[in-house]
Amino acid sequence: MKLTRPEPERTGTMLGAIAGDVIGSAYEHSRMKTMNIPLFQTHSRFTDDTVMTVAVADAILRSTDYAESMKSFGRRYPNAGYGRDFMKWLFSPESRPYNSWGNGSAMRVSPIGFAFPTVEAVLAESRKSAEVSHNHPEGIKGAQAAALAVFLARKGKSKEDIRKEIEERFDYNLKRTIENIRPAYRFDVSCQGSVPEAILSFLDSEDYEDAIRKAISLGGDSDTIACIAGGISQAFYKVIPREIVGEVRKRLPPEFLEIIDRFDRKYTDT
Questions:
Q1: How far is 268 from 164, CA to CA, in rounded Å?
Q2: Domains of the chain
Q3: What is the per-residue pLDDT across 15-53, written as a single tens digit (0 to 9) for each?
Q4: CA 96 – CA 105 distance, rounded (Å)
Q5: How far apart are CA 43 and CA 59, in angstroms?
Q6: Which is deepest, 12, 46, 68, 123, by most CB within 10 Å?
């Protein structure tokens, strides 16, 4: 069932997370428990995960406020599948956080792992990006864990080094396997119930596509788990199958592609 060709596409930074979102969008709420799936269907699309990831990237590129950028993009794409409380936040005249522990803070954070130069900077920026809406300790922790995993993968750390660092710093149980988790796993939008599983989808994987298939096979919040796993996997493997790149790009609006390409030009490691 793999789409992979002998020479996959070398990509820059953001497309790994976005591809995970697009591929996972067709399987959210499906309780999928297999990796043997078509990666793209006619209704595969970008969701709020992609919109907010692009918003974070644009805020970094323009050195603007995270909340301002998220609200600007969210209001332009209001039908992307936001949660009820986040939708209220998007259209509120104020930008008060609402103490969320949801995984929305973690699904949008991969650009920070690519853009900032040190562990300390990544942790500080991911906290800032989370706190504008998801200021619950678990919401902040999930964002920091996802961003740090991207950063460590980007810097060439081994999977065992990444596992150890995330476990020790955030007290996530990463000694499990996807195969063990899959049978009993249920839909869970909390950071604490989905970020460790997304990281494990990467840690258990053989390549980018395998990580996405493993994330979806859990049968949970498929687009978000695949988005988080996809961002880490791209940082680690550096390549994505050409077919995936093409299928995803044709589903994105021109302004997203422009930001993605500009971000890649500025932050892809050489």
A1: 25
A2: 9-36+46-265 (1.10.4080.10)
A3: 999 999 999 999 987 888 999 999 999 999 999 999 999
A4: 15
A5: 29
A6: 46
